[in-house]
Design a protein that fits this description.
The chain has about 130 residues and is α+β, with helices and mostly antiparallel strands. It has one domain. It contains five helices and four strands; from the N terminus they run αββαααββα. A four-stranded antiparallel sheet has the order 2-1-4-3, with helices on one face. The two termini are about 15 Å apart. About 30% of the residues are buried.
Length: about 130
């Protein structure tokens, strides 16, 4: 079995335990964070992150054609999250919020979500296998 097919099968195994989960991305001028959110047990979230890291590493080693910011990401799990965002959509548009304080400090924070991240990951792994 190919590496992409194996990852597809492993993500599919996770789907039932992650049907109420989402992959959340929040960023602003000073931080950029991803996390598994929603209703998901700790073991499934850990397994998803491990599989995402494996898939992100495979994007590089298999020479997959990906957007520039995906290819530039050094962390393999984050690389997979970015690939999901760019290549496994459509997703809901990001939400942008403005913050301010009495002292005049302020800024902008954006939040985006990928619903059903295990299902989206399985579909992307399948697509990457088919595109070889």
């Amino acid at each position: 079995m190919s590496a992409w097919r194996d990852l597809e099968a492993q993500f599919q195994k996770l789907e039932p335990s992650m049907e109420k989960a989402r992959l959340e991305h929040q960023w602003n001028m000073t931080s950029d964070d991803w996390r598994v959110g929603g209703s998901v047990d700790l073991e499934s979230a850990k397994r998803f992150r491990a599989l995402a890291a494996e898939a992100g590493a495979l994007l590089v080693s298999a020479g997959a054609t990906v957007p520039k910011d995906v290819a530039a990401e050094q962390d393999p799990a984050r690389r997979w999250y970015l690939a999901l965002w760019h290549m496994a959509g459509p997703h809901d548009a990001p939400i942008v919020g403005m913050m301010s304080s009495y002292a005049g400090a302020g800024g902008q924070t954006s939040t985006a979500r990928i619903k059903l991240p295990a299902k989206s990951s399985a579909a992307l792994a399948h697509r990457l296998e088919e595109s070889k």
